[in-house]
Amino acid sequence: METESEPYVRLASLRRLHHVVARLSTARSLADTLQTVADGVVEGLGFEIAAVNLVRPEGDLVVAAVAGSQGAEAMMAGRVGSRASWERRLSMGEQWGNLRFIPYTEGWVLDEDDVPQWHPAGPAPQNADDWHPMDRLFAPLYASDSELLGVLSVDRPRNGRRPGAWGREALQLYSSQAAIALSNARLRSNMQRALVRLEREQSALRASEESFRQAFEYAPSGMAVAEMGGEQHGRLIRINDALCRLLGRPASAMRRYSFSDIVHPEDIGTLLRTSAEGGRAELRLARRDGSYVWVSLRNSVVADTADGPRFLLTHVEDIEDRKRHELQLAHRASHDSLTGLPNSAELRARLNGRLCARSGPVISGVAHTGVSGSDVPFGPGLGYDEAGSGVLASTGMYDPHHTHTVPPTGKTPGEKGLAVLFCDLDGFKSINDRFGHNCGDAVLVEVARRLSAGVRDNDTVARMGGDEFVVLTDGVGPAEAQDLAVRLRNAIIPPIRVDGRAVRVGASFGIGWAGCGMTAEEVLQSADQRMYVEKRSRSKGQRRAG
């Protein structure tokens, strides 16, 4: 089972990965893109050295960018390795998805070929999964049509170990985005040259138009030209085959629309906020079948002649896979890998999202809940709004639109609040000890399913770790919370069949109440303590009955 710290580590790695991937789209030239790709490996993926080997027109590969080591840059930058030698490398070693790993035990045969290489000094590995100074790890960079654009080579993991499943997946995701960035940079470079010829070389107008047409029509990603100004501002007048294939719409039908006609309703604001000249946005466009695809739009203004009409040239990049990977990575960082439930970090985040740090007196572990008249707590920077009906967020401590979470006091009928049910399984350890962890894992999965089936759609069931679960249920009173705990306990008690045998576990529940002024940790500790009180009370009752 993963430790509680691993989701935080993964989340931090995911944030760094998102940051360096986002930087790929900000590079302004091919050379800038190449260096940004190399720098991103060092800054965001946990390697100390990275080099980008770019395929040249004649087929050989040149070291176009190096990051992380001045010695490596001095030895390799600008040097060329033959295509045959690189193909030999990419056919050797171990295949990690799209990556190629050549351990030092096999790589010694490559020491004398013509590929530029530099091996940093370092200690010999002590364990089988330690990184050896002579190990090699490559990530091929392919265009959408499977053309090899280059090879990204990385070295010296900062933790001194060969990358695990998480590190490999992150490097694969980054290399796929780097390939898109290189392909787009090359395309933009070609198109910019075409546009310069269109504006400055009137005598070569037809040749420039043909160059633009080919770059437009045969671009691997979607391209469109729209009108600027006039009654039909924004109407698409030219669409390439890649965009038609992406959206499943023929060019004749596309010419009846503008992007505002086919954008997802929730993304129309994003589209409108995107500036016409040099604008960029990520949004969803409608396919012919009614589904939506995530795309990145990048706009440039093109003039037909020096003083002629202007058009908007839009580059449409399919980022559906990237978005899906981002969602998968985010889900793995915030959910338990065994049960699929939100993990403890996600549970605390959801609780903190409902609680504000209210000042004022605290009674029995619950913040004072008055919101008007003499009951409003005052502190530094706090005061009434103009109508005298609420507390201002003048110091950033309060959101004026925040609805305070208030625990029920039990004094007023119909009071409702946010209940926290802390669940600890009874007898689970004996199942692990007697039948093994596989059986225990199956029991945890089934308990998670039964808990999820017993709550409302808007309630949260989370796994804290081990055999502890937490249920968040809002808008309930004390009696309703107690009834829910009884129903969930009764749902857990029936036998669970695992590998032909029936096993049973019990459950102890403690009910706590969340309130503004408390931290998530205080709320969970309160419910946890009540659970242990209930467990001890039930145990004493069973002993007396015996």
- Taking the alpha carbons of the first and last residues, their distance comes to 37 Å
The average pLDDT score comes to 82
Largest sheet: 7 strands, antiparallel
Total helical elements: 17
The stretches of 5 or more residues where confidence is low (pLDDT under 50) are 359-398
Note the overall shape.
globular
Class from secondary-structure proportions: alpha+beta
Helical fraction: 25-40%
The rounded Rg comes to 30 Å
DSSP summary, beta strand count = 20
* β-strand amount: 15-25%
Order of strands side by side in the largest beta sheet?
3-2-1-7-6-5-4
What is the fold's blueprint, element by element?
Blueprint: H1 5-24, H2 30-44, E1 47-55, E2 61-67, H3 70-76, E3 80-81, H4 83-90, E4 94-96, E5 99-102, H5 104-107, E6 136-142, E7 148-157, H6 165-200, H7 205-217, E8 222-227, E9 236-239, H8 241-247, H9 251-254, H10 259-262, H11 268-273, E10 280-286, E11 292-303, E12 310-318, H12 320-334, H13 344-354, E13 362-363, E14 366-367, E15 417-426, H14 428-435, H15 437-453, E16 460-465, E17 468-476, H16 478-492, E18 496-498, E19 501-503, E20 506-514, H17 520-545
Antiparallel strand pairs: 1-2, 1-7, 2-3, 4-5, 5-6, 6-7, 8-9, 8-12, 10-11, 11-12, 13-14, 15-17, 15-20, 16-17, 18-19
Helix pairs in contact: 1-2, 1-6, 1-12, 2-6, 6-7, 14-15
